[in-house]
Amino acid sequence: MAPSSKAEKKAAVDAAAWMFNVVTSVGIIIVNKALMATYGFSFATTLTGMHFATTTLMTIVLRWLGYIQPSHLPLPELLKFVLFANFSIVGMNVSLMWNSVGFYQIAKLSMIPVSCLLEVVFDKIRYSRDTKLGIVVVLLGVAVCTVTDVSVNAKGFIAAFIAVWCTSLQQYYVHYLQRNYSLSSFNLLGHTAPVQAGSLLMLGPFVDYWLTNKRIDAFDFNIPSMVFIILSCTIAVGTNLSQFICIGRFTAVSFQVLGHMKTVLVLTLGFLFFGREGLNLHVVLGMIIAIFGMILYGNASSKPGGKERRSNSISRSSQQKQGLPESSEVDDKV
Predict the structure, then answer these.
(1) What positions does the domain Sugar phosphate transporter occupy (predicted)?
(2) What is the C-alpha to C-alpha distance for residues 258 and 166, in angstroms, rounded to an integer?
(3) pTM for the full predicted model
(4) Is the residue at 3 inside a domain?
(5) How far is Cα of residue 120 from the mean position of the Cα atoms in its chain?
C-alpha cells in the first residue's frame, strides 16, 4: 500500500474512532441525566458497575464468536489498572458532591497537564512549543466556557486531587498496557471489565449510600426507569470500547485535549434543545477559543517534532520484540 493511501486510511479510522467516542459519550450523558433527574436514580457508582457488567457480556460474546483472541495481562498490572479506574470513578463522584461546579471543572481541566507530566516522566515525551500553546489555548477556552463559581474546601480538594491523578493514571495505563502487551481494545476490555464490574457492583451500593444516604434496594425499579438503565448500559459498552480505542491510537493527552470537544458539543446541544439558557457571550467566546486551540494542537502535534520521544531506542526495541509497528498504534484493525 502506498504511503499516502496508508496515511489516508489511518486518518479515516482515527476520525471514525473519535466520532464513535463523541457520540457514545454525549449520548450516555443525556441518558444518565434523564435517568437521574426524571426517575431519581442517583446511584452513580452502582450504575457504573452495571455498565461494566454489560461490557463484560459483550466481551464474552465476542470471544465466543472469535473476535477476541487469547491474550495475557499480568495480574499485578490488571489490579493496578482496576485500582486507578475505580478510585477515578468514586473520586469524580465525590469531587462533584463536595466541590462547587467551578472547582470541579478546574479539576477536570488539570487532567491535561497531569497527563502531560506522566508522558514526560514515563515515556520521555518532548512537546514542541506550538503543541504546548495548543494545550494552553484549549484549557483557556474550556475554562471560559465552564468555570463560574469557584469555592474549595479541604476535603473537596483531597477528593479532586485523588480523582484527577487516578483518572490520569488510568488513561495513561490504557495506552501503556495496549502498547506493552500487544493488546487490542477488545482484549484489554476482556481483561479489565469483569474485575471492574465485580468490584463496583460489590462496593457500589455502599459507596452510593455514603454519598446520597439512599439505599438502592429501596429504589422503585419500574418499567420506564429500567428502560433507561438498559439504554444507559447499552451505550456504555460503546463508550468504554471507544475510550480504549481512542487512547490506544491517540495517547491519553490527545484524548483529554480532544475530549473537551465533547464539552463544547454538550453546551451547543443544550442551547439547541433548551433555548438560550446558559448560553451567553463569554460561553460563545470560550467555545471559539477552545475550538481554535484544538485545531492548533492537532496541527502542531502532527508536525515532525510536535510530540516525540527523547529516547526512541527503548520503545522501538520493545515494539520490535513484540512484533508491533514502531508507531505504537496497536488498534489499526479496529
Answers:
(1) 23-297
(2) 19
(3) 0.79
(4) no
(5) 20
Least Cα distance to 40 among 204, 215, 205, 203 occurs for: 215
For Cα atoms 158, 160, 161, give the angle at the middle one, nearest 5 degrees: 65
pLDDT in tens, 197-227: 999 999 999 999 998 899 999 998 999 999 9
> In this predicted model, which residue has the larger pLDDT, 169 or 139?
169
Instruction: Indicate whether 329 belongs to any domain.
Output: no
Q: How many domains does the chain have?
A: 1
Question: Side chain identity at 26, as an amino acid letter?
Answer: V
Q: Which residue has the higher pLDDT, 95 or 333?
A: 95
Cite the DSSP H helix spans in 111-184: 111-122, 129-146, 154-180
Alpha helices in 40-128 (DSSP H): 44-65, 75-98, 101-109, 111-122
Q: Is 136 exposed, middle or buried (0-12, 13-18, 19+ CB in 10 A)?
A: middle
CA-to-CA distance for 221 and 283, rounded, in angstroms? 38
* Percent residues over pLDDT 70 in the chain: 79
Q: Which domain holds residue 174?
A: 12-322
